[in-house]
Structures are given as C-alpha cells and as structure tokens.
Amino acid sequence: MKPILQSIIAIAFLLPGLAWGESLTTPQRIVSLGPILTEMIYLLKADQQLIANTNYCIAPEEAKNKEKIGSMIEMNVEKIVSMRPDLVLASPLSKEKQLSMLENLGVRVRRTVNPKTFSEMCQLTMTMGELLGKADNARSVIDSAKKNVDAILSVTRSLPKKKVFMQIGIKPLHAANQDTFLNEYIEYAGGINITSSEKTGVYSREKVLKDNPDVILIATMGSSEASGEHEKKVWEQYPSLKASKNKEIYVLNSYLVCSPTVVTFAKAVRVIAQILHPEIEALK
Hints:
Helix content is about 40%, strand content about 15%. The chain has helices at about 5-10, 35-45, 75-80, 95-105, 120-130, 135-155, 180-190, 205-210, 225-235, 240-245, 255-260, 260-275; strands spanning about 30, 50-55, 65-70, 85-90, 110, 160-170, 175, 190-195, 215-220, 250.
C-alpha cells in the first residue's frame, strides 16, 4: 500500500510526550502537516490558530485558503521557520530528518500516530482538545459522535447479519481486518466482516469467492472514483458471487470512509448501515 494511502486510512492525533493535565501554553500559531490534522483543528474550532497546512489539506473548504508549506512527505522547512509557529503538528508521513531540523531550530513539534478504533479516536480527539485549549469543544464533538453511533447500534444490533467484504486497496487486494475502525464500520452497521479474523489486510479474490459475501463495499483509498467503479465491474464478472448476483456491490466515498475523525466515523457507519439495511426508516 502506498504511503499516501496509509495516511488517508489513519492519520490522527496521539501526541507522544504529552501527559494528561500537562501545563502548556496554548499554541496560537499552528502548522498542520496532514489533512486529517487540519480537519480536526477545524472540528475543534481552533482554525483561527492555524496559520499554514499542506497542499493536501482541502477539507473543509476554508482549509484551502491557508498558507501552504509543501506536502505531507516533503515540507518546506525554511518557510515554516520563517512563519514563527509555536506548534507544528506532524503526521506519520512527515520525514523525521525534517522534523529534527525544525526542533534544532527551536520549533516545537508534536508527532502523531494512527488510531485503530473509534474508542482511540475519541481519546485522541480529547488529547488534541487539551493541547489546543479546546477541551470543551472536544467533549462536545465526542459526545455527539458517540450518540450518533449508539443510535445506529440500537437499531442494527438485533437485525439479521449480512456477510460483508470491504475492499480498501487494489494491488495487492486489501481488506478491513480485525482491530480496525474499518471492521467496526461493518459490525456497528449490522454486518459480519468476512475478513475480521485476518491478521493482515492482504487478501485475495479467491478467498472472497470462497467466502461468498452478501455485500461487497469498495473504498479504494488514494485512488480515483473511476478505480472503484472498475473494481465493481471486476466483481460483477463472477455470477456465482452472491453480491454480484443480487447487485449488492457498492463504491463508497473513500474520503468519508477512510478519514478517521470521530465525526467521519459516525457518518460512515450510518452510510454503511443504510446499505446493509435499507428497510430501516430510523436511519434515513
């Protein structure tokens, strides 16, 4: 899987070295080195503190207008230093050599790692809120997301479970394996993930055909929508496949599904629940 795809599936906000209750001056000049970092800053209503981000930071719409400092993988160190930030939030794709350069020049850097589950997303959102001086906003965002997820669970947990295969990569074929928020999407939406017991995300078409899922969901991270539609046509060429025979193959919005903020997670669970259980009026 390409590095850029890995960042879309899981950039988030665990901040090594930041202890709960640690007393720090609230940063007022923040540089974000990842699109999901930027999106989180806006969710927490800390965007007035954001002075720059990357070329990939295009959501929300207002993020496009912030000063650009390069890409997630290759930043302009000199430009960042000249902007005199009091905090740089680094993504897992940020080059350690460049981050060390920033630190040697006196710039405060916080490295981030990837959350695996909805629970971790909630914890990390709270940590970001504490760091940015937006703890109350973080609590509000988390509480709202939890309520939305719980509302869906209250409807889906007692429904018949369809077997689901979620494809998130093409070459090689990648699936939503255990201990990931992608697996949680399926389970919370009232489905059974046929790849939940896999230790890695690498899968094969032969295994999918053998498991014969009722539904196939396609979210080709980092690829164009056309790539997802192409994969759909490939699966439709197997008439013995239940999902193909019953026309239960769906291309999902990869940005929605693969962007792990708590708000995006709740929205994605709802979308998938409506696919698996279109008869449920309560979700519409």
